[in-house]
Design brief:
Helix content: 25-40%
Strand content: 15-25%
Distance between the termini: 25 Å
Order of helices and strands: EEEHHEHEHHHHHHEEEEEEEE
Structural class: alpha+beta
Number of strands: 13
Number of helices: 9
Strand order of the largest sheet: 3-2-4
Radius of gyration: 27 Å
Largest sheet: 3 strands, mixed
Shape: elongated
């Protein structure tokens, strides 16, 4: 996954470097407002400086704010209802600086999406959509938490959220075989994410067929015998074949391929080399679920 947004005009970023000799003419103060009784408490979270002309070129909202008929008369602009980190990333995009998205959470990315909409910046919104499509998913907990976040923001940012949900559905399709999806849905009962699960399952059902992550077939071969040494790959999940007499009472136990010896027709899947066939019966079955 690409986690870096590369700036397209590297020299533009020089305008943010004081050593370049072009002074900034506007300061954005990122403010958090809280209320204590009748008092309004303002906390400055950080400041972002820049050139009005550069911000105006990136956004018609900034253009009107700085050069319109009702333009700001101050050079210090308060900005509420966002975070310093989100506004800084928007500024990086405007100034064509590289942006590293690794370690940025999905809710934090939505903070940037909100700014892209507020300041009418379609190019930034397109970039956020691309980043959402490539959000890394490590396991089912990631899948559900991120998909649920997407559903919560869908009414505000439908295009970005739809892209994120589709990415989650593709992950589900690749990692949870059809035979295990009903149980996956049942496991989410009473979690508050039932509607999210149903939406993911519906999206996954309509996706084009893909190869199973484990057996490599479009039609998953979970539980079927593995025939042919070329079918074995390192990391493949297996279970020993109950129908194969080589295992005696050990049939059915799980195994993972550690190495494949094509010359001797053996695999190391349970701590030692084993032949893949015994008395013409496959010694292993696919374990995809």
């Amino acid at each position: 996954m690409e986690t870096i947004t590369k700036g397209k005009f590297a020299r533009l970023s020089l305008l943010q470097d004081p050593a370049y000799g072009v002074p900034s003419d506007v300061t954005f103060q990122i403010i958090r407002v809280t209320n204590e009784g009748t008092a309004e408490i303002r906390e400055v979270l950080g400041e972002v400086t820049g050139l009005k002309l550069v911000f105006a070129a990136a956004s018609s909202v900034f253009r009107d704010e700085f050069f319109g008929g009702l333009k700001e008369t101050t050079d210090v602009i308060p900005v509420k209802e966002t975070t310093y980190e989100a506004f800084e990333k928007m500024m990086f995009f405007i100034y064509s600086k590289d942006i590293d998205w690794s370690g940025v959470t999905v809710p934090e990315m939505y903070d940037v999406v909100n700014l892209a909409e507020k300041y009418i910046m379609p190019e930034l919104m397109d970039e956020m959509t691309r980043q959402m499509e490539n959000v890394p998913l490590a396991n089912n907990d990631d899948l559900l938490n991120i998909a649920h976040t997407a559903t919560q923001f869908h009414h505000l940012f439908p295009d970005v959220s739809s892209a994120l949900l589709l990415s989650c559905a593709k992950f589900l399709q690749k990692t949870i075989p059809p035979s295990a999806r009903l149980q996956f849905a049942i496991d989410q009962s009473s979690t508050g994410k039932e509607a999210t699960v149903l939406q993911l399952l519906s999206l996954a059902k309509d996706l084009p067929a893909v190869e199973c992550y484990n057996c490599g077939n479009v039609e998953c071969m979970d539980g079927q015998g593995v025939v042919g040494i070329d079918k074995f790959t390192v990391g493949m999940k297996l279970r020993v074949n109950k129908s194969c007499g080589m295992w005696d009472v050990n049939g059915g136990r799980h195994a993972t391929v550690k190495s494949v010896d094509k010359d001797n027709n053996t695999v190391d899947a349970r701590g030692g080399p084993y032949y893949i066939v015994y008395q013409n019966i496959p010694a292993f079955c696919y374990c995809c679920s």
